[in-house]
């Protein structure tokens, strides 16, 4: 009997040109699909208009096509689906699992500095819960005045609404989740009516992704994603986080360090086969 046909995806954010680390991630997902007769999807995670650019989206398609990493079906471009994410937020809000947060960064920093304990989560210091304690009237007044606000998950309420402990399969072994270490995470930003955690989890479910392959830097985030799946009744895909490619000095390849882009390598005369070999083929 053959292996299950995996539905996988490569989900880059178009904030720059792809480098070898991206080629490694794309190749890992492409292989996991092709080797099992499954499907490989391409999704553009471009909800942040201040960081994403359409020319980088075009470059992603060109680079993948040049490498021969062909994808199945239409490309999902997240910025065209903000109403989908809104619907999820509305569903969570209707169950009392979200609250508006009017705090600025400096409000939060001040509150944290004034408190005795300042616990940290995977995304930084935990939100001290200031706006969770607002009364319904205070919230309504500030909303009516049009004060900008993010939407945060009420972590304690969310955890009470799902069976414990949550687990997911990481490289085929069960792994226990601890979403509480994110605290009241932001699910919709002040400037963007969505967030990475919300969109990625929604889209993996919507697109029927059965195996999520991605860098190990996103392993902690999976605890929060699993919580959203449990709250929304979405299936939990299997996960296989992979090591990040490093440069000769052992440093992680990153756009900000001007790691050689796939375009640089192509222009330097490298063939797709050579690039795929460097990317872990
Ligand atoms: N869009 C994310 C990134 O570029 C990856 C999302 C994921 O694979 O879950 O880092």
Automatic annotation (TrEMBL):
InterPro entries: aa-tRNA-synth_I_CS, Glu/Gln-tRNA-synth, Glu/Gln-tRNA-synth_Ib_cat-dom, GluQ/Sye, Rossmann-like_a/b/a_fold
SUPFAM superfamilies: Nucleotidylyl transferase
Pfam families linked: tRNA-synt_1c (PF00749)
Occurrences of domain Glutamyl/glutaminyl-tRNA synthetase class Ib catalytic (ranges): 7-274
Keywords for the protein's UniProt record, in alphabetical order: Aminoacyl-tRNA synthetase, ATP-binding, Ligase, Metal-binding, Nucleotide-binding, Protein biosynthesis, Zinc
Similarity section: Belongs to the class-I aminoacyl-tRNA synthetase family.
Protein name per Swiss-Prot or TrEMBL: tRNA glutamyl-Q(34) synthetase GluQRS
């Amino acid at each position: 009997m053959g292996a299950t046909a995996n539905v996988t995806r490569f989900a880059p954010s178009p904030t720059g040109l792809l480098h070898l680390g991206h080629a490694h991630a794309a190749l890992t997902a492409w292989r996991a699909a092709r080797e099992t007769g499954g499907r490989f999807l391409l999704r553009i995670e471009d909800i942040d208009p201040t960081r994403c650019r359409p020319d980088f989206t075009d470059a992603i398609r060109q680079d993948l096509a040049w490498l021969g990493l062909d994808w199945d079906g239409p490309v999902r471009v997240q910025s065209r689906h903000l109403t989908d994410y809104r619907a999820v937020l509305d569903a969570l809000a209707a169950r009392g699992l979200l609250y508006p947060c009017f705090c600025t960064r400096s409000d939060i920093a001040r509150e944290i500095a004034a408190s005795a304990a300042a616990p940290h989560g995977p995304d930084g210091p935990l939100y001290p819960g200031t706006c969770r304690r607002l009364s319904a009237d205070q919230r309504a007044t500030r909303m009516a005045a049009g004060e900008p606000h993010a939407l945060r998950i009420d972590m304690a309420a969310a955890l009470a609404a799902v069976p414990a402990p949550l687990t997911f399969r990481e490289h085929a072994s069960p792994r226990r989740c601890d979403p509480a270490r994110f605290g009241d995470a932001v699910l919709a930003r002040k400037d963007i009516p969505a967030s990475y955690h919300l969109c990625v989890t929604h889209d993996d479910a919507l697109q029927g992704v059965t195996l999520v392959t991605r860098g190990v830097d996103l392993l902690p985030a999976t605890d929060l994603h699993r919580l959203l799946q449990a709250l929304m009744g979405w299936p939990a895909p299997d996960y296989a986080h992979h090591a990040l490619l490093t440069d000769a000095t052992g440093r992680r390849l990153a756009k900000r360090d001007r790691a050689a882009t796939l375009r640089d390598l192509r222009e330097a005369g490298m063939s797709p086969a050579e690039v795929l070999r460097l990317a872990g083929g």
